[in-house]
What does this fold into?
Amino acid sequence: MTRDPAVELVHGVTVYFYPADAPIVGSEGQASEVLATAFGHRAALVAMPVDRLDDMFFHLSTRIAGDILQKFVNHRVQLAILGDLDSHLRTSAALRDFVAESNRGTHVWFLRDRPALEARLAARPASGSATTSG
It folds into this structure.
């Protein structure tokens, strides 16, 4: 059996790298589909390219971000959103605050790229691994 090339072990954490050409995620139902794939690969973390999220995700008043992120938190799967958020952050102080607060936590991270994700995972204490806690 061959492994899905989108699933890798990174510093002891099984990560599902959502494909750059996969469907846009903009609803709880679509987030559930991503989670189902992650569960199928026993991934503890989903790395999502920022451009795979519907633009309305970044308008916090729509509650799309909250609904999607809560889905991941409830299912104890971490989410790392990878990519350049600058255009979104320039237009919303609320989003800037939300991203900063999320990055202080352990469930949802907004990171520039894969090396930033790898560095974040490498810095985690072994007992706090995403493979053993949510």
Summary: Residues 7-121 form one domain. The first helix runs from residue 28 to 40. The chain is about 35% helix and 15% strand. Helices lie at 28-40, 64-74, 86-90, 93-104, 114-122.
